[in-house]
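Hello support,

Our group uses your service weekly, and this is the first time we've seen a run hang past the timeout. The protein is GPI-anchor transamidase. I'm not sure whether the cause is the sequence or the server load. Input pasted verbatim:
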Amino acid sequence: MISLVFKVYLTGHGGDSFLKFQDAEELTNVDLAYAIQTMFEDNRYHEMLLIADTCRSASMYEWISSPGVLSTSSSLTYEESYSYDVDEDIGVYVIDRYTHFTIKFMNYKVKALNSTATLEDYLESCPRHHCMSTVGTVT
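Update from on-call engineer: The timeout came from a worker crash unrelated to the input. Re-ran successfully.
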């Protein structure tokens, strides 16, 4: 049997129980839980890593009860996530802190020859003093 590992990375503007994509489309935590349950019932994954990177992003996985899902978030349900780097020419932030440290982890830990990086290493790659928010995790 082939083990299907599915990875989902959600980012946008978040609030309690929802995520907005470019201020146009909205995804609720109930819709997300339903989609994952449907995927499980249709044998579309064996294990899933769900990463939510928005303000209040832990609220996105509150309703997920499907087996084999590890969810992590850049902030807890009542907490904001913060930006990292500003582009002075256009006057806006261009990357979030959690995304910055995720990319840094992938580039320096995972891509390294003979990498021994673990999922636990990833989950610890953005401590509160760097991210300025609390990384949430639930299985």
